[in-house]
Amino acid sequence: MKALSIKQPWAGLIAGGFKTIETRSWQTKYRGDLLICSSRKAMIGMGHEFYLHPLCHYQGSSICLVKVVDCVPMEEKHQIDAMCRVYVGAWAWMLEDVRPVKQIPVSGKLSIFEVDFSYEDLKP
Fold first, then answer.
1. What's the Cα-to-Cα distance from 105 to each of 69, 89, 94, 108, rounded to whole Å?
2. CA distance 15 to 35
3. Pairwise CA distance, residues 124 & 108, whole Å
4. Which of the 8 DSSP states describes residue 105?
5. Is beta strand 91-100 parallel, antiparallel or unpaired with respect to 62-73?
6. d(Cα 87, Cα 80) in Å, to the nearest integer?
7. CATH number for the domain whose boundaries are 2-114
8. pTM (2 decimals)?
9. How high is the pLDDT of residue 26?
10. What is the phi-psi region of residue 17: left when phi exceeds 0, alpha when psi lies from -120 to 50, beta otherwise?
11. How far apart are CA 121 and CA 124, in angstroms?
């Protein structure tokens, strides 16, 4: 299964359905299910107001499954759903179909990576 590590609170906000666009400095051609995992370390100095949401507290674990449906150059119209401003070279990954999963420890990596979990393993 393909996975992506994202720092908190952003991973939890995706799981909660609040953040429907993930931004990266690189494009992906991948479309389909993607396991969102929270990084071991949270974002320092940003988004502290979001830590009230319970899904923003998990670190170093699986958070949710999403479907990547598109990846386009980021524009101003994406800022609200991405919860960030446009920046030079940003790509907007369009996420849909958020599904809860059981929190399982995951060692994050850069880029999209493979995890050895099945859908059964992740059932909440």
1. 26, 32, 25, 9
2. 10
3. 20
4. B
5. antiparallel
6. 14
7. 2.30.130.30
8. 0.89
9. 97
10. left
11. 9
State how far the Cα of 87 lies from the Cα of 49, in Å rounded to an integer.
22
- What is Dmax (Cα atoms) for the chain? 40
Degrees to nearest 5, angle at CA 70 with 16 and 44: 45
Q: Indicate the pairing of strand 113-114 with strand 2-6.
A: antiparallel
Nearest CA to 61 out of 7, 16, 18, 123 is that of: 7
What pLDDT is stored for residue 124 in this prediction? 86
Q: What is the DSSP letter of 61?
A: B
User: What pLDDT shows up at residue 86?
Assistant: 96
pLDDT along the chain (124 residues), means of 10: 94 93 98 94 60 67 97 98 96 98 91 94 91
